[in-house]
Amino acid sequence: MKKWISTLLIASTLVGCNSGSDETVSKTNDQKDEEQQVQKTEVVFWHAMSGDLEKALNEIVADFNASQSTIEVKPVFQGTYEEALTKFNAVAGTKDSPTLMQTFEIGTKYMIESGKIEPVQKFIDEEGYDVSQWEKNIVNYYTVNGTIYSMPFNSSTPVLIYNKDAFKEAGLDPEKPPMTYSELKAAAKQLTKDGKYGFSILNYGWFFEQMLAVQGGLYVNEENGRKGEATEVAFNGKEGLRVFELIYDMYNEGTFYNVGQNWDDMRAAFQSGKMAMYLDSSAGVRTIVDSAPFQVGVSYLPIPDDVERQGVIIGGASLWLMKDVDEEKKKAAWEFMKYVTTPEVQAKWHVNTGYFAVNPSAYDLPIVKEQWEKYPQLMVTVNQLKETKATPATQGALISIFPQARQKIVSAMESLYQGVEPKEALERAANEINRELEMAKKR
Amino acid sequence: MPHTVKRVIEGGMYILPSLLLFSIFVFYPMIRTLYLSMHMTDFQGNPTTYVGFEHFVYLFEDRNFKESMKATFLFVIYTVPPTVIISLCLALLANEKLRGIQLFRTFFSSTLGMSVAASSVIWMFMYNPAVGVINKILIALGGEERQWLLNPDTALAAVAAATVWMNIGFAFLILLGGLQNIDSTLYESAEIIGMSRLYQLWRITLPLLSPTLFFVITVSLIHAFQTFGQIDILTKGGPMNTTTVLVYSIYREAFVNYNFGFASAQAIVLFFIVLIVTIVQFTFAERKVHYQ
């Protein structure tokens, strides 16, 4: 009894001691922080990463802040890319403007035309920074008129994700995912039963753009708007029609499941076994593999039969530097941008998310090799990009009205489920986007 | 004469504060909207070139605008009458003097305390085709699984149902307040002359409640025209623009597509629609309103 009491006493004093010393430690830390912040250059960094991606990003920022003592990067989540862009629009050029901002690939032309940004090319030239260390397809995408405007950061590509267990059950080889449209249709037919569907594509313009590019189809004229100002759409040719016909046919055969416009709904439907195959961004691969209650396979974007695979467009986002902030802040932000594109950081980013490394030497690091053994699915995304041919199609379109264009494409995709003929749906979208292009010229 | 001038100045001083506030927050934005609606704008919303009525001309040719007008009017029809009728019934029930009636009054008005965003998320889960409770019940009753928010035939009705639920709390509370203001001696006299309950409702309750009813209907109508949150969360205007009501279309043009001029033109159209509806209401419906 006595012993018991004394143990308790000792324990409680220990606990007391501990908490006391903790407080003093944290206090001195706070003080130190405050003192340091006076001299530190603060870089406000707007981003659009949520969920697991935000966690991974915050880790990188914390590592950077700890790695040196003169710069403090403050990440601020600003909603989706679209929402962040709206907020940027409101504060650009004022003192509330961030120093650094993450913007998605289709915002590239918009950002350039806003006149509020500083091309990173300036720092690349000043320092003789070597961009040849980057993935060549990435340099390809972000070079506009010979200038690199923003720092590539998180790049992704579309992939086909499928349920290996469902493949086995349906008598399909789980190691042989469909590569062409006819294989896709056949597999989907076998996988469809008891209220479960074979295949699905999110109603989102990005997937249409990708399925077009993989066949070498252009989105707009003037070499996808890279040779000159695009004046007309080009997606309503045979390549675009093939994509719409695929969706239309599969939906009418009852093997295609309409998941709507919401990424989370789509992933939830896949995880609950509602459909066995779907298209996703490679950025979602790691989360899906971890959270699905079955074996997950990842494969290339399917292509029409007898068409040569051209590869995929870089998706994802890059980091933009603001023009109207202090030179000192710009320099600090440039340091951070260089840091996030180092092989070590990109390796960590790649294995934690599924975005591929901007700097391919990241793939030689042990951390990547180790994770690739655990998650061979991540390798697929890298290989798909490596095999991409650099053409105007896979460079991606450069237009400022991308948000509108995507809305029209989504509406057209939705109309396919209501029995509108693929040709008609495609033409309606094309006409509407042509008008938007015309309007944009008048600005 | 100087006396009148003095009075005008004095009167002007009294309304100056509110005039100032209205000018800043209502009149200036309205004039600016009108100005923008006749211009093309850059991405920051600064006017660039004058285009006159071109936006308006295009609006009336645009198929998408027609669709969103249709969606707006259907949405008003789907939400306002059900909201008013259901909350009136609930208010009549909750006006009875029964034991524990306070509990029901709290229940019926509780949706007033829910934010649009929170309730929309709850409804989104209920409508979910795979795990939502609505489909679960439907299937248990032998029905078929339905994609409520993805089917153009049901999407608008589904959003409207959620909206009715959200608006009932407010309408109920106002109507209950109106019912409690009715002099109880009128009912006592009616009892004495042997009037039936239904006749009392028709002859006493409704006429005396009419100012409150009028207020609830007007406010619900304007609310319905301005609905945004639940559309943004539940459907984002889809599928095939069937739920793109005018306000959502304005938002999308201005803050997603950065076409501030075109968006302003739509806002002007919306302003005139609400104005006309309100004038019509005041000239026709108000005659039936009985003020004590």
From TrEMBL, chain A:
One of its GO terms (cellular component) is cell envelope. It comes from the Bacteria. It is found in: Cell envelope. GO terms for biological process: transmembrane transport. Signal peptide: none annotated. InterPro entries: Bact_solute-bd_prot1 (IPR050490), SBP (IPR006059), SBP_1_CS (IPR006061). The keyword DNA repair does not apply. Keywords: Periplasm, Signal, Transport. SUPFAM superfamilies: Periplasmic binding protein-like II (SSF53850). Pfam families: SBP_bac_8. Belongs to the bacterial solute-binding protein 1 family. This is Carbohydrate ABC transporter substrate-binding protein, CUT1 family. It comes from Anoxybacillus pushchinoensis.
TrEMBL record, chain B:
GO terms for cellular component: plasma membrane. One of its GO terms (biological process) is transmembrane transport. SUPFAM superfamilies: MetI-like. Residues 69-281 form the ABC transmembrane type-1 domain. The chain crosses the membrane at residues 12-31, 73-94, 106-126, 155-179, 200-225, 260-284. The keyword rRNA-binding does not apply. Keywords: Cell membrane, Membrane, Transmembrane, Transmembrane helix, Transport. Belongs to the binding-protein-dependent transport system permease family. This is Carbohydrate ABC transporter membrane protein 1, CUT1 family.
